[in-house]
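Hello everyone,

My group is preparing for a crystallization screen and wants a predicted model to guide construct design. The compound we'll soak is glutathione. Before spending weeks at the bench, it would help to have a computed complex in hand. I've included the protein sequence and the ligand's SMILES below. Output in structure-token form would be ideal because that's what our pipeline reads.
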Amino acid sequence: MILIGRNNSPFVRRVAASLKLLGIPFEQKELSTVANREEVERFNPLGRIPALALDDGEVLIDSTPILDYLDELAGPDKALIPASGPERRQVLKLVAYAVGVMEKSLGCYVERQVRPQDKLHQGLLDRFAAQVHAGLGALEAACPDTGWLFGDRIGQADISTVAAMDFIGVFWPDLLPNDRFPKLQALRLRAYGLPAIAQTKP
Ligand SMILES: N[C@@H](CCC(=O)N[C@@H](CS)C(=O)NCC(=O)O)C(=O)O
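Reply:
Good plan to model first. Here are the tokens for the complex, ready for your pipeline.
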């Protein structure tokens, strides 16, 4: 299968890290939604990444359904999100915090990159920053001192949280001082100990 997109997108990165963690072989076509727009649109008419082209020609789009497919492929013992019950709801909520942090930090990145400096909407940027901090605060509150956000092995809540933090760390570092979310920072460093996370850094 072929993963479309670059790991500087936190959505692509969480898929790349999940594929590696699950031991699923894949190629990565590092297309940009700006520089390679037409090629990206051949995989996803919305022009968005990630997309995942399967060996039989089917193309999956959007990181959430892609990750759902990968968990199904891996089977319940290896899946990165529990299959059912309160455990599933708990992990999905943590993942939703992390995805919210990705969306709001991406919103800020786009606002800063695309809009002329004198037209920046400071109120919107402040709102995005507050939402990013609120999401990270909720994850920090759920984060243990050791181990992972849920269960005894790394899962999708951890992967998505680290993907969100690494994206902010590269594109909006002033929003993520290392001492503001100490448990998450420790989780991030623990995750770097795994090749699947370290090798997919943006
Ligand atoms: N909900 C989507 C969000 C994906 C997304 O926003 N991707 C960005 C890159 S980080 C993108 O393709 N942006 C280009 C665009 O929306 O025009 C997912 O989870 O995959």
